[in-house]
Amino acid sequence: MASLRAALSFVESAVNTHKVVVFSKTTCPFSILAKKILTEAGVQDMKVFEIERREDAPEIQEALHNITGRRTVPNVFIKGKSIGGGSETAELYQSGKLREMLQEQGIIK
C-alpha cells in the first residue's frame, strides 16, 4: 500500500507533465463520457490513468481529494488545472468553453 505522500507526488507530476490528464475508471460511465468528449473536442494527446488497475488507487483518490476537493472519478485536468468530472466536462463542451480552453492552451487548433 502506497503512502499518500507518494500518491500526491504522482498526481502532481502527472498533471504537470501532460497537457490533458484524466484519472478514470474503465467501467465508470462518467469516465467514459469525459474521455469521449475530450476525443471529440480534438484532444489527441491525452494521458489516462485507469486507477482501479493500480494498487495505490485509494491513495490516488485521496490525493485527488486533497488537490481538487473531489475524490470521485473522472477527474480531468487541463494544463495542471482540474476542470471537474464527467458532467462538468460535458457542460464545458456543450457551451463551447472546453474547445476555447483547449485552443487557448495550444492543445487543439
From TrEMBL:
Domain Glutaredoxin: 20-83
One GO term of the biological process aspect: cellular response to oxidative stress
One Pfam family cited in the UniProt record for this chain: Glutaredoxin
Top-rank lineage group of the source organism: Eukaryota
An example Gene Ontology CC term for this record: cytoplasm
InterPro entries reported in the protein's UniProt record: Glutaredoxin, Glutaredoxin_euk/vir, Glutaredoxin_subgr, Thioredoxin-like_sf
GO MF, one annotated term: glutathione disulfide oxidoreductase activity
PANTHER family: GLUTAREDOXIN 2 (PTHR45694)
NCBIfam families reported for this sequence: GRX_euk
Protein name as annotated: Glutaredoxin-C8
